[in-house]
Amino acid sequence: MKQRFYLRRFSFFLLFCLSLILSLELSFGRPLSAAVMASMPLQSVPLQSVPLPSVSLRTDERLAQSSDPIQQGRAHYESGRFSEAAEAWALAAQSLATQGDVVGQAGVLSNLALAYRETGDEDLSQAAIAQALSLIEALPSSPETAAQVWNTQGILFRGRSQPSQALEAFQTAAKFYRQADDSAGVFRSQLNQAQSLQSLGYYRRALTLLADLPISLVEQPNSTLKVRGLQLQGDLYRAIGDLTAAQTALEEAVVIAQAMEISQTSLLLSLGHTAEAQGDTAAALAYFQQVSDRAETVKVRLRGQLSQISLLRSGGHSQALSVLYAAIETQLDNLPTNRFALNARLDLARQQMSDPAVSPESIAQQLAAVRQQAQSVNDPRAESYALGTLGELYLQGQQLSDAQQTLQKALSLAEALNASDIAYQWQWRLGRLNRQLNRLEEAGQYYESAVQSLQSLRENLIAIAPDLRFDFREKVEPVYREWVDLLLLEAQNNSQNGQPSLVKARQAIESLQLAELENFFQEPCVALSQEIDQVIENTVSPTAVIYPIILPDRLEVILKLPQQPLLRYTAAVSQLNLESLLTSLQRDLLLPFTLNKVKEEYTQLYDWLIRPAEAALENNNIDTLVFVLDGFLRSIPMASLYDGDQYLVEKYSIALAPGLQLVDPQPLQRQELATLIAALGESRHGFSDLPFVYREVSQVQQTTDSQVLLNETFTKENFSAAISNNAYPLVHLATHGQFSSDPDETFVLAWDEPIKVNELNALLRQSEQSRQRAIELLILSACETAAGDKRAALGLAGVAVQAGARSTLASLWSLDDETSALFSNYFYQELKNPEISKAQALRNAQLKLLGDEDSPNSTYQHPRYWAPYVLLGNWL
Q1: Which among 827, 798, 805 has a CA at the least distance from the CA of 665?
Q2: Burial 712-731, CB ≥16 within 10 A → b, else e
Q3: CA 583, CA 561: separation in Å to the nearest integer?
Q4: What's 331's DSSP letter?
Q5: Beta bridge partners of 678
């Protein structure tokens, strides 16, 4: 009996070591490639085996010859012989059940579930893990085994593309690891939780979880787990666009892996995707080739090879592509039918659809085979993707009837799974197809369903693809714009009752703009509280709202007047020609001696945007115009629109709104004006000095009660303390800054470092708990939009929305700080007047700067001096 007791203890010890190692091996994964995952977010699989500790290992051959089925299963699993591993562990589970060893049986069953998963037998895998979970319910004194089983359950959920359930399972595993006082297990479970959050699209939450580890990743002792944690951190940084931080984490992981003499192939794959995101094609290809050359398994080699396809195709390497295709297809034919093989085949098929050298018939055969295999392993997500991709292929070949039937089948599968991230793609394609067939009502229904699917994702919109920021315009934006195009066509065809279509079109553009901002920040935007329509209906100053909508073949404009239904008019200008004019105008606005040309260009823009509405604006005595701008129009100041005689600012007060809602709009309380001024006049971090900043600061101090952080006192820490400890209604930043479509390139300059947009917004919003109300006005002086970036104003809109301020006053460009100082003086003088709105104060300051030909300010006649200042948000 004593001998049997020690034998059982020894068997359990081996079992526990095995389960720990298997958990390590299967706890991490990466998407197949940025290209395919952008449109096919299927579940990833492990990249490589994790080397086992040498002290507990014998060779695979000796293990295979052992009479212990647990050890045999381990040997077979490590060798990739999953069927043999399953047979050995099934025998072991039966033997342990006969012996009454419930602890050992539960542990072996959890491993058996993993083996069955690898063979593609989902039913047996689920049965094994269900039995293991049932057994551990009766084992309150064995947290080690409970932790192992729940960890395996998380892995299985992740393999079935159920990240929410996986997250809960890993959280339960962590609880049991804590009860077992297993710090390594807790660490591993937290990494698994972070990966589940990654799969859900919660990249920042995942990074926060990694940052809140009891011992930071950097301070962890070197181990395989640390390498995996740094890789995950690097992948997360890449997903949110922080490519420098991503590369740093991955390179640190490589150094540790080299010191430990463990494989670096999965790290090289991550570095390759980072290089690809950085636009360094040569480096990316070199990394992917190293992965293919040094891969320990077929899976890893295929990942490296699949990642090369789009880069080789874009580089015109047709011969290398043909060789690569053949190599990939040969390896895929030798793989068992499982999720990895299905994803890889779908990846290959989707990439080949963009290669004219590959026949559609060949791709169709691949997709039909994938569908059959997906059915055999009960993977409806993969089946939906196979059918949907086949439907796209039929669309390319104008086989519309086949396309419709196939896409509808794909959509039915996605809807049955409640998978909005898949469903919207097939709804979108069916919308396009029905419009092509001139079935406009059906097309509209499909487009509306696609937008609703995207709306249901909202916070998880980024989960559609890890690199969504880089292809948002290709994967999401067209859905909205094509639906708006259709709605406006409906409104035109139904002139008697077009209001519902116009309202839907305006709401769709609002949803698109919000989605753009969420994509920009990689997180949900601040909730806005009041609709613009309600504001203009209740304001004393008659206000109209103008919504330009840029479509490929025309510019549509929707006009909202107080107490009236929406009006619509159209300019017959293509998007290409409109953006060409805007590009020229943006350049000419910054140059001297271009006044006549700028007026000519602005007159053309006025004819498109304002001229058709002139009579309606005059008949309604409108004195304030609020623009909800679209696309590249956001980078052009509307104040300079020219009717041939006057600028628009000479007739109206003007404001911009980032969307159809505002942050609790209220008039500014003039008697309580106090300002926090943070200014930088000296040259710092490669930026020139701003000598007139001192005059600007002095003038603001003379106008309002102020606290000043100037030069070396304007540090991020001092600014944070000042904004938190005092409820200033005005916050004035007089320093270099830049707005960009990349949040990492959107910043304001402090003495010690640039403050990026996310940090700035966090600093501004952290004071909300200590203040009774929102910041009334955030002033960004001397900032500018990034040159050559047509979407740079996204950064400005992002600051305006996320900062939580009621209004933001900023400059689209900055020529000289002398003009900024003069403008600030005029603006603060006007702002003190309680009889006028913020928009009117801005207008009056601009008119003073503009002056007239006989005034001392005639130097500033060119819009380059007075036009760049824009007011976003609450204009009251």
Answers
A1: 805
A2: eebbbebbbebbeeebbbbb
A3: 30
A4: H
A5: 709, 733
Which 3 state secondary structure label does DSSP give 280? Answer: coil
Between the alpha carbon of residue 396 and those of residues 189, 253, 282, 740, the distances in Å are: 45, 43, 31, 36
Taking each helix axis as running N to C, give the angle between helix 265-277 and helix 281-294, from 0 to 180 degrees, rounded to the nearest 10.
160
**Whole-angstrom Cα distance, residue 712 to residue 710?**
6
Q: Inform me whether the pLDDT recorded for 54 exceeds 50.
A: no
Transcribe 700-769 into DSSP letters: HHHHSEEEEEEGGG--HHHHHHHHHHS--SEEEEEEEEEE-SSGGG-EEE-SSSEEEHHHHHHHHHGGGG
DSSP state of 160: T
Say whether 125 sits in a helix, a strand or coil.
helix
Two tokens at 756? 């990026």
Burial of 854 (0-12, 13-18, 19+ CB in 10 A): exposed
DSSP 3-state of 485:
helix
Number of H helices, E strands in the chain: 37, 15
- Split at pLDDT 50, 70, 90, the class of 839 is very high
* C-alpha count within 13 angstroms, C-beta hemisphere, residue 796: 38
Give the predicted TM-score (pTM) of the model.
Answer: 0.73
Phi/psi region, residue 804 (left: phi>0; alpha: psi -120 to 50; beta: rest), is: left
Q: Can you tell me the distance from the alpha carbon of 634 to that of 754, in angstroms, rounded to the nearest whole number?
A: 24
The amino acid that residue 74 corresponds to is R
| CA 624 – CA 649 distance, rounded (Å) | 10
Q: Positive or negative CA dihedral for 275, 281, 287, 292?
A: positive
* pLDDT per residue as tens digits for the range 594-608: 999 999 999 999 999
Q: In Å, what is the CA distance from 366 to each residue of 291, 387, 407, 566, 735?
A: 25, 11, 17, 50, 58
**Phi–psi pair at 96, nearest 5 degrees:** -65, -35
Confidence of residue 464 (pLDDT cuts 50, 70, 90): very low
Helices 817-831, 838-850: crossing angle, 10 deg rounding = 130
Distance CA 848, CA 845 (A): 5
**What pLDDT sits at residue 256?**
93
Alpha helices (runs of H) in 589-631, residue ranges in sequence order: 595-609, 614-619
Rg of the chain in Å (alpha carbons)? 31
DSSP, residue by residue, 32-69: S-HHHHTT--PPP---SPPPPPGGG---HHHHHHSS-H
CB 642 within 8 A of CB 599: yes
